[in-house]
Amino acid sequence: MTGDPGTPGDLFAGVRVVELAQFVFVPVTGALLADWGADVVKIEHPETGDGYRGLVSQGIGAGTGSLNVSWELANRGKRSVALDVKTAEGRALFLRLIADADVFLTNMLPGSLERLGLGVDELRAVNPRLIYARGHGYGARGPDADKPAYDATAFWARGGLGRTLTPVGLDDPIAQRGALGDRNGAVQLAFGVAAALFKQARTGEGSVVDVSLLATAMWMLGSDVLSALQGTFQPAVLPAPGTRPVPPNPLTANFRTADGRHLTLCFLQPDKYWPDLCRAVDRPDLLADERFADIRVRAQHAAECLAALDEVFAARTLDEWRTAFADESFPWEPFQAVTEMADDRQVVANGYLGRIDDGEVAFAMPAGAVQFDERPAAMRRAPGHGQHTDEVLLGLGLSMDEIIDLKVADVVR
Questions:
Q1: Is-contact 29 189, C-beta < 8 A?
Q2: How many other C-beta atoms can be found within 10 angstroms of the C-beta atom of residue 265?
Q3: Which helix (H) or strand (E) holds 391?
Q4: Using one digit for the tens of pLDDT, what is the confidence trace for 300-359?
Q5: In whole angstroms, how far apart are CA 165 and each of 168, 222, 234, 261?
Q6: C-alpha to C-alpha distance for 1 and 38, rounded to whole angstroms
Q7: Residues 151 and 25: beta-carbon distance below 8 Å
Q8: Which stretches within 40-160 are classed as H helix?
């Protein structure tokens, strides 16, 4: 299950992961582990499979024709076993998989796992060194530990992201983009699993790893959480029509260009970069202006400085500013649309978009942000529903006759 030759896709070679999870949060963790060589066996119900497979038929999952690329992004590189763990035979087969696994990944509710007899103690009785990794909405403890959640509820709504990013004065909260919290939580869980594997390799001991969408939101909002704890939190404010906020440092602001696009300056060391900016925009008069001489006086005349820069940037298009700033070292960037990302020279140079081509279909998707030895992971297709059931069960020592009997009994597919 390693990547293509010449790629560092074998970092987790030999690591066996059993995943009992649906939709995005925890499955993305499994996909990231699979990218780097882990053998991830995804357990799906024989009839329904992972519910995320069906979203494309509802017009939710991004896709072209019958290809559900959202499914591919969350489940690439895995093997699928269609197995009903609610049956006695299915649970017994599941435990045989667990006995030889390094990691168990799940986002099932704690109560559901206990009712199925798949809690920590039950699985540890079969495999004492097992890493038991759980993705939660609200955490493993407390009155809401068993409350169902999606990232729109636990991360965006309850976790404060939506409220923090919605300006005061807007009638309704802004909507979350798809699976924003899920994919961020998945990275946290993958980090936890990697750390647990390191401990397991050194000591032979397993760990229970927990990550919640609520905690992920609080971590992402760390600066705002600190401000709230100190009583200094400042909500986002919706400017009055025709006005814009005036920051104390006018060199940390957004500016409109002649073609209606925007760029941002982030000069946290403004005195260091101010001379270079004045030269790059061909305005030596601004550098000579006593009102803008240093950070202290610019703060006193922030509105005038902002107005002067508004006039400067409104005189050229974004592409003209790209050319003018091409060789500059000060921190600036255009406000880029996601539809422009595929052609971004840094995205291309670093392989941040990977391509999957199995001879039947070819498509691009985001690679994980982590690279080893300056190379991205080699990505592989997500599995079909139950595509590897026979293969995995034969690996457990079952005969084809036994597998057929299990299929007739609807235990497997």
A1: yes
A2: 20
A3: helix 389-395
A4: 999 999 999 999 999 999 999 999 999 999 999 999 999 999 999 999 999 999 999 999
A5: 9, 14, 11, 21
A6: 7
A7: yes
A8: 69-75, 88-99, 110-115, 120-126
- Report the 10 Å Cβ neighbour count for 340: 10
Mean pLDDT of 206-234: 98
Residues shown for the chain: 413
- Return the beta strands (E) in 198-345 as ranges: 208-212, 252-256, 262-266, 332-334
Query: Any idea which architecture 252-336 has in CATH?
Result: 2-Layer Sandwich (3.30)
Check if the beta carbon of residue 190 is closer than 8 Å to that of residue 183: no
Q: How far apart are CA 114 and CA 120, in angstroms?
A: 9
Is the model's pLDDT at 373 over the cut of 50? yes
In a 3-state reduction of DSSP, which class is residue 239? coil
Q: How far is CA 230 from CA 162, 225, 277, 306, in A?
A: 21, 9, 36, 30
Strand ranges in 86-150 using DSSP code E only, listed in sequence order = 103-106, 131-136
DSSP element (H, E) containing 97: helix 88-99
Indicate the Cα dihedral angle 108, 112, 114, 116, nearest 10°. -100
Domain residue spans of the chain: 16-221+349-408, 252-336
Banded model confidence at residue 63, pLDDT cuts 50, 70, 90: low
Only one residue has tokens 């079952």, namely 398
Q: Which of 13-27, 232-246, 319-333 has the lowest mean pLDDT?
A: 232-246
Contact 45, 84 (CB under 8 A): yes
Tell me which of 101 and 3 has the higher pLDDT.
101
pLDDT of 1 strictly over 60: no
Give bridge partners of residue 353 from the DSSP assignment.
Answer: 366
pLDDT per residue as tens digits for the range 169-184: 899 999 999 999 999 9
> Tell me, what's the pLDDT at 3?
40
Instruction: Quote the pLDDT of residue 59.
Output: 55
Q: How far is CA 409 from CA 78, 83, 315, 394, in A?
A: 25, 11, 73, 18
Burial class for 223, CB neighbours closer than 10 Å (0-12, 13-18, 19+): exposed
What is the predicted pLDDT for the residue at 56?
64
**Does residue 141 contact residue 135 with C-beta atoms inside 8 Å?**
no
Token pair, residue 260, equals 């209606």
Q: What share of the chain is helix, strand, coil (3-state, %, to 5)?
A: 40, 15, 40
Fold classification of 16-221+349-408 is: Rossmann fold (3.40.50)
Contact between 162 and 179 (Cβ < 8 Å): no
Work out the widest C-alpha separation in the chain, in whole angstroms: 89
Catalytic amino acids?
A: 182
Tokens of 237: 């404010």
